[in-house]
């Protein structure tokens, strides 16, 4: 039993405020005719029909539910209607807005798509999420006060006022509930005042009460603002089912029914499939059209063929008064209903907003840079205590080189901790890009810029322990040079993580590929095998593009290139250098052993910066072309 306070809170969340926040509404109808989708089956290599001749029509202010068994084509149809066609599918369709064909850019400007998974930044609060959504979509024609007003209106409309200053939730800190996340996802797309809203499984993972609340809010907003809402939904409760104005029932890619939800019972009674009393219509329809679990598959297929055939016959006798009789033309710019709407913000404004959003996330989410800072600091203390106070003698030459290798290589390896944080950012980017908010360039630039100060702090803090505890060359300029190389090493390592995570946006895959690449860089960096003895294949293919090689070379040159070492009490010098008569070893002799000369420091830094730029460029390309 719920307490009186819980009942009051639940009742408050059910009621949307009567606030019309959508303006300049000019879309009166949305229509799709003869939607067909064909893909190649991976096993049989044959062409397979996902959707076959699916049609429908919806007017402003109506909610349409797309239902059907798993694999019936619900999400595929929703993607086609939202112009999110897959490159691997052959799609043929006629989609009309007010009886005219829209372009892809026009559809993206006046529609929004809420995916099944909540692509949200967990370290932001509910209000901040809406504020950033507003700044990314409304900056062109809206003042800051107007954007703030719209955010407040949506917080009230979706019952999120009490959670406004609560974070969404991260792996280490709990935030809002699943139902509240779903409402926030919808509200974040409504912030731009779209004319058409596509929802993919908005009630997935919610109980019946939370599902009803989410769809009630959507319905209230749609009715108040003449919004067209098209929803793919699996198995709603009877209360949720009644919220929809129309139903499109699919099975095996074909239409089983399309029309008013109130006419469902009468229609299936007429075709010989009466619905039992006190039955959830959604449950009945799914049992009727789902043949995957039937024991008698032949009888089940015959039943489904009867349902398909009955709809085909009834469709031929029905003439929709809303359908367009003339040949549809393209929607021209003069007739574009978005021309009176809000302009998208400029590229510079968008990039600045993304920088601010990423900066807040980086500061709050300990998994982004906080955990890495602690790990790097712990590694630095470990290195400093293991190689503690090495004397400048011949016996310390190899330990010095080992310390340089271990420090630089493992600093690079540990950048894999950034993989989950970037994958979360990429998920949000994919959603926002599909809704036309920003592209890969703004996202890549903001991601790069935000990481620079954090990586510098990590490089400075870790170097302060390693350099002075190990007793590298005691010189302020040499220390700053060490910090610079460590900084470039971390920037390059993070760039590699971005590239791999953009190519394979999966935690395990990105982690494995990044670790493998780091292992390859480490093996070919000139320490394990001197450059002059390295296999020509690895030298020309991997060494000269290996940022770890230039970092290792820069660090050992910073130590050995400007320091001399004592040969010991017996004056036995392992390296024949000009200082042998003085029982000393010139560090330049050690560099010659590795095949390193006295290369120009600016040249080596320039090459390393070039490698970072190329990796980032490839990462940008992967973000742009990887779906």
UniProtKB/TrEMBL annotation:
Compartments where found: Membrane
The organism's place on the tree of life at top rank: Eukaryota
Topology of the protein relative to the lipid bilayer: Multi-pass membrane protein
Bias kind Low complexity: ranges: 319-332
GO cellular component assignments: membrane
GO molecular function: ABC-type transporter activity; ATP binding; ATP hydrolysis activity
InterPro entries to which the protein is assigned, alphabetical: AAA+_ATPase (IPR003593), ABC2_TM (IPR013525), ABC_transporter-like_ATP-bd (IPR003439), ABCG_dom (IPR043926), P-loop_NTPase (IPR027417), Plant_ABCG (IPR052215)
The protein's name in its UniProt record: ABC transporter domain-containing protein
Membership in a protein family: Belongs to the ABC transporter superfamily. ABCG family. Eye pigment precursor importer (TC 3.A.1.204) subfamily.
Domain ABC transporter, chain residue ranges per copy: 32-277
Taxonomic classification: Eukaryota, Fungi, Dikarya, Ascomycota, Pezizomycotina
Keywords from the UniProt entry: ATP-binding, Membrane, Nucleotide-binding, Transmembrane, Transmembrane helix, Transport
Ranges that cross the membrane: 366-388, 400-423, 443-470, 482-504, 510-530, 605-623
Chain spans, region Disordered: 318-342
Pfam family, one: ABC2_membrane_7
């Amino acid at each position: 039993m719920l307490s009186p306070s819980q009942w009051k809170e639940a009742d408050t969340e059910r009621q949307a405020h009567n606030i019309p926040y959508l303006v300049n509404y000019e879309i009166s109808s949305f229509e799709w005719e003869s939607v067909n989708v064909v893909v190649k089956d991976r096993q049989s290599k044959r062409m397979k029909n996902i959707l076959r001749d699916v049609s429908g029509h919806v007017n402003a202010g109506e909610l349409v539910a797309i239902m059907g068994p798993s694999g019936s084509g619900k999400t595929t149809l929703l993607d086609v209607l939202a112009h999110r066609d897959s490159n691997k599918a052959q799609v043929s369709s006629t989609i009309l807005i007010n009886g005219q064909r829209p372009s892809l850019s026009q559809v993206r400007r006046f529609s929004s798509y809420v995916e099944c998974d909540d692509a949200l930044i967990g370290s932001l609060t509910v209000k901040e999420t809406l504020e950033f959504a507003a700044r990314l979509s409304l900056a062109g024609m809206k003042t800051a006060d107007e954007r703030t007003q719209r955010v407040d209106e949506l917080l009230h409309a979706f019952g999120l006022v009490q959670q406004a200053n609560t974070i969404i939730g991260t792996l280490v800190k709990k935030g809002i509930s699943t139902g509240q996340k779903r409402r926030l996802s919808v509200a974040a797309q409504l912030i731009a005042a779209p004319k058409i809203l596509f929802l993919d499984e908005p009630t997935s993972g919610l109980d019946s009460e939370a599902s009803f609340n989410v769809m009630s809010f959507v319905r209230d907003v749609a009715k108040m603002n003449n919004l067209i809402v098209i929803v793919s939904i699996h198995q709603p409760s009877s209360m949720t089912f009644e919220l929809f104005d129309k139903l499109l029932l699919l099975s095996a890619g074909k239409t089983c029914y399309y029309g008013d939800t109130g006419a469902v019972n009468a229609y299936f009674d007429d075709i010989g499939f009466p619905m039992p009393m006190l039955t959830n219509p959604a449950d009945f329809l799914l049992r009727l059209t789902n043949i995957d679990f039937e024991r008698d598959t032949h009888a089940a297929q015959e039943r489904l063929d009867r349902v398909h055939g009955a709809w085909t016959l009834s469709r031929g006798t029905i003439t929709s008064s809303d359908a367009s009789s003339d040949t549809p033309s393209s929607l021209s710019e003069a007739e574009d209903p978005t021309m009176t709407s809000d302009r998208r913000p400029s590229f510079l404004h968008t990039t600045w907003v993304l920088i601010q959003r990423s900066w807040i996330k980086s500061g709050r989410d300990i998994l982004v840079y906080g955990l890495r800072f602690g790990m790097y600091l712990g590694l630095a203390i470990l290195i400093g205590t293991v190689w503690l106070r090495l004397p400048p003698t011949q016996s310390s030459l190899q330990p010095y080189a080992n310390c340089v290798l271990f420090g630089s290589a493992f600093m690079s390896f540990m950048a894999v901790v950034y993989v989950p944080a970037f994958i979360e950012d990429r998920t949000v980017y994919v959603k926002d890009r599909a809704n036309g908010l920003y592209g890969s360039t703004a996202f890549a630039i903001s991601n790069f810029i935000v990481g620079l100060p954090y990586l510098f702090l990590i490089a400075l803090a870790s170097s302060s322990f390693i350099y002075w505890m190990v007793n590298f060359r005691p010189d302020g300029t040499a220390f700053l040079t060490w910090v610079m190389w460590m900084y470039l090493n971390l920037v390059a390592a993070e760039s590699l993580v971005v590239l791999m995570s953009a190519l394979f946006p999966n935690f395990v895959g990105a982690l494995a590929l990044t670790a493998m690449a780091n292992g390859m860089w480490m093996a070919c960096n000139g320490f394990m095998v001197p450059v002059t003895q390295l296999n020509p294949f690895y030298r020309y293919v991997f060494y000269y593009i290996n940022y770890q090689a230039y970092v290792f070379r820069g660090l050992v040159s910073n130590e050995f290139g400007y320091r001399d070492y004592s040969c010991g009490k017996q004056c036995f010098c392992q390296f024949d250098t000009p200082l042998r008569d003085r029982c000393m070893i010139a560090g330049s002799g050690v560099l010659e052993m590795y095949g390193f000369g006295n290369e120009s420091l600016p040249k080596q830094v320039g090459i390393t910066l070039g490698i970072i730029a190329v990796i980032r460029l490839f990462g940008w390309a992967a973000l742009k072309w990887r779906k």
